[in-house]
Amino acid sequence: MSGEEYDFGAFVAARATSLLRVAYLACGDETEAEDLLQTALERTYKNWERVACYDNPDAYVRRVIINAAINRARRRAILSIIPMHSPPETSARASDPDLFHVLMDALRTLPPRQRAVIVLRYWEDLSETQTAEVLGCAVGTVKSQASKAMAKLRSALGRETLEGAIKDAHA
Predict the structure, then answer these.
(1) What pLDDT does 124 receive?
(2) Who wins on pLDDT, 131 or 4?
(3) Whose CA is closest to 125, among 136, 117, 133?
(4) pLDDT tops 80 at residue 158
(5) Helix/strand/coil (H, E, C) string of the chain?
(6) Entry pTM
(7) Which residue has the higher pLDDT, 91 or 107?
């Protein structure tokens, strides 16, 4: 095993759990999160020589995860517009009152870009500047997307529920 492969393996061993959490929060589905992480790690490995030179290779992988999640959400949206012969069965909504599940349902209603901002800002605890770097956009865009997303979440959940969920996420 070459030194470059060893470095990548050590990186994955050290950061896989955190990166999987980002993927899960970005898409809201455990299986899809694993696929997103696998995709991100494949792309990272192909470019590891360049990525390893960065001060923070986590940011590169997070960006790949978020971009892949946004692209998949767009594809799903396009496919939902295409008419089908018979409508798909809808899954029964879980009646689990657990706050985490309620919050995840609310996160799934957000557009992919807003969900990405919320995940990076509040779960990953990145600054607005760091979030903008990961998403490849301006700090002002992060602020406006976060504001819009928080307004939607407050509307869907109620102010007290949302504030409690954010506090619990940091615990």
Answers:
(1) 85
(2) 131
(3) 117
(4) no
(5) CCHHHHHHHHHHHHHHHHHHHHHHHHHCCHHHHHHHHHHHHHHHHHCHHHHCCCCCHHHHHHHHHHHHHHHHHHHHHHHHHCCCCCCCCCCCCCCCCCHHHHHHHHHHCCCHHHHHHHHHHHHCCCCHHHHHHHHCCCHHHHHHHHHHHHHHHHHHHCHHHHHHHHHHHHC
(6) 0.55
(7) 107
